[in-house]
Amino acid sequence: MLPQPGGLVIARTDADLTATTAAGPRLTVVPNTSTPTAQSLVASIDRRPMYAPTVIQKIFGNYGLVPTLRFTTEAASTSGETEELIPMTVAPGKTYVFTLEAPSATWAQEQKALEAIVSDADVKPANFPS
């Protein structure tokens, strides 16, 4: 999922900034004017097929419990890509959706570092695009 206007992409390599499927870890952040639910996150995914979609509640920094959607793009747990979508509401009608991506074969090693970036993010409502 590549960013919409007002979005941000962080990746280990320049090629992964714009690749359809990243070869390494990538974090994308896009603004959203509504607070997504687990169901709307699943419905909004433009990636097919989607295997093992799982919604859990996780704590990220000062944001408290946040619904987090995780899925893979291949049936085999070591193939394809694992993605995690995390909607962070910073004010009413102001939500950023963080998408964490990494090859499924390295997800276990990359997940902690990617989630630490989200936990440490200090997203200010004033920075939300108009």
CATH topology description: Protein Transport Mog1p, Chain A
Overall structural domain count:
1
Strand order of the largest sheet: 1-2-6-5-4-3
- Average pLDDT confidence is 83
C-alpha termini separation: 22 Å
In one word, what is the shape? globular
- Number of helical stretches of at least 4 residues: 3
Secondary-structure class: alpha+beta
Radius of gyration: 14 Å
CATH architecture: 3-Layer(aba) Sandwich
Low-confidence stretches: none
Helix content: 10-25%
CATH class type: Alpha Beta
Strand content: 35-45%
Order of helices and strands: EHEHEEEEH
Number of strands: 6
Largest sheet: 6 strands, antiparallel
Compact summary:
The chain is α+β, with helices and mostly antiparallel strands. The protein contains 3 helices and 6 strands. The protein has a single domain (8-123), classed as Protein Transport Mog1p, Chain A.
Protein described:
With 130 residues, the chain is α+β, with helices and mostly antiparallel strands. The protein has one domain: Protein Transport Mog1p, Chain A. Helices cover 20% and strands 38% of the residues. It is built from 3 helices and 6 strands. The chain has helices spanning 14-18, 38-44, 107-120; strands spanning 8-11, 26-32, 51-59, 65-72, 81-91, 94-103. The protein has a 6-stranded antiparallel sheet with strand order 1-2-6-5-4-3, sandwiched between helices. Strand 3 and strand 4 (65-72) form a beta hairpin. The two termini are 22 Å apart. The model has no long low-confidence stretch (mean pLDDT 83).
